[in-house]
Design brief:
Elements lengths: L1 H22 L5 E10 L2 E4 L5 H9 L6 E5 H10 L9 H9 L3 E5 L5 H10 L5 E5 L11 H17 L4 E4 L2 H6 L1 H7 L4 E3 L1 H11 L4 E6 L1 H6 L1 H9 L4 E6 L3 H6 L6 H16 L4 E4 L8 H8 L4 E3 L1 H15 L15 E5 L3 H11 L8 E2 L6
Parallel strand pairs: 4-5, 4-6, 5-12, 6-7, 8-9, 8-10, 10-11, 12-13
Antiparallel strand pairs: 1-2, 1-3
Helix pairs in contact: 5-15, 9-11, 9-15, 13-14
């Protein structure tokens, strides 16, 4: 009997709240649209009412809406004496889960990482930036790559991303450690995931790494692999011509075959059994590399491993987006610093999810 009365009372109270909530929604939720962000938080526009607020909410970007709950304020006031507190964390967490993932690279190579994220975590939204005006990073100094990376991170943060993937081996080697200290959202690179798998995969303790000159020179793969398995030997080989060959679309071409044979000959001679494709461009010529190295060599694709680790990290932090995109929603946005049309054509050749457009951004403004 008591249970029946309790359920009836709860139903009446719920109906009362819904009734008045429909008539006066501002009693329950008061949305504020944030358009300017400062170090101290959100600088709100002047309060808006009626149609202006409705239009502002409809036109807002992910992360621009802030919800102030009148109901929670009243509830907290009632329970304050008993030391109980109610928060809107669940609402904030839900909004954060639907925020996009930021991905950046020195150019088009990071598209292999974006492609793996699309495959493995299909509900996630992505904002991709390719620094096509300043590519390649592999021949630039640590200071320059770090400065470029900071600008791109600020651009992605302006789009309210929930996490950032540094889809560039050179930027991961040179800038990731500094970026981790400077931002308050999760950020991961492509070096550690590949290094971890290589350390676990090798059978004879001989691991090869092919990458840009900067990545090989940084010894970053050697450092990470040795931390995981000190009983291995790492052999690095810079392959600078692979990047322009990939960007020219010469994935299956006699020229690429010939250059690959020259680059990889010494790694074959020292009998490695595991080879890390240490540049995000290189998965595009994986078939060529695999054919030259032979079946006895396991190829490690950091793009695949990074997407897998990203999924695990988002799940552990409660940030995985469990909701499928609405019909017609543009889940993937692409930005470049130069050559938007060329980028779009290349992206469409390797990503089969439809690159509707790519926009050019003056990244020096960030």
């Amino acid at each position: 009997m008591k249970r029946h009365l309790f359920l009836r009372g709860a139903a009446v109270l719920t109906g009362f709240v819904l009734f008045w909530g429909c008539l006066f929604p501002e009693l329950i939720w008061s949305p504020e649209v944030c358009r300017v962000y400062t170090e101290d938080g959100c600088l709100l526009e002047e309060e808006q009412d009626g149609l202006e607020l409705y239009e502002a909410v409809l036109g807002s970007q992910p992360g621009e809406i802030r919800l102030k709950s009148r109901f929670l304020e009243i509830w907290n006031a009632l329970w304050k004496k008993q030391g109980r507190k109610v928060t809107s964390m669940s609402v904030e967490q839900a909004v954060l889960r639907e925020a996009p993932i930021g991905v950046f690279d020195s150019g088009v190579g990071g598209l292999t990482v974006a492609r793996e994220i699309m495959r493995q975590i299909p509900n996630e939204k992505i904002i991709y930036f390719g620094d096509t005006a300043r590519v390649p990073y592999g021949s630039k100094s640590k200071e320059t790559v770090t400065r470029f990376s900071r600008q791109i991170v600020r651009f992605l943060q302006a789009h309210r991303v929930k996490t950032i993937v540094v889809a560039c081996n050179t930027a991961s080697a040179y800038a990731l450690e500094d970026l981790e200290k400077e931002i308050d959202i999760p950020i991961i690179g492509v070096v550690k995931p590949g290094a971890k798998v290589a350390a676990q995969t090798t059978r004879n303790g001989r691991i090869g790494v092919i990458a840009t000159e900067a990545t090989i020179g940084s010894q970053i793969y050697t450092q990470y692999i040795k931390e995981l398995n000190e009983n291995v030997t790492i052999y690095g080989k810079a392959c600078p011509l692979f990047v322009p060959l990939v960007e020219e679309g010469l994935w299956e071409d006699p020229v690429t075959d010939e250059i690959a044979k020259r680059y990889l000959a010494e790694l074959i001679d020292i009998d490695i059994d595991t080879l890390i494709l240490g540049c995000t461009h290189y998965p595009m010529i994986r078939a060529t590399v695999g054919r030259i190295m032979g079946e006895g060599v396991t190829l490690v694709n950091p793009a695949y491993e990074t997407a897998r680790e990203l999924k695990e990290m988002l799940g552990a932090k409660g940030l995985l987006n469990e909701s499928a995109a609405a019909l017609g929603e543009n889940k993937y946005q692409f930005y470049v610093s130069d050559g938007a049309d060329k980028f779009k054509n290349f992206a469409n050749s390797i990503i089969k999810y439809g690159i509707l457009s790519a926009k050019t951004v003056n990244i020096e403004e960030f």
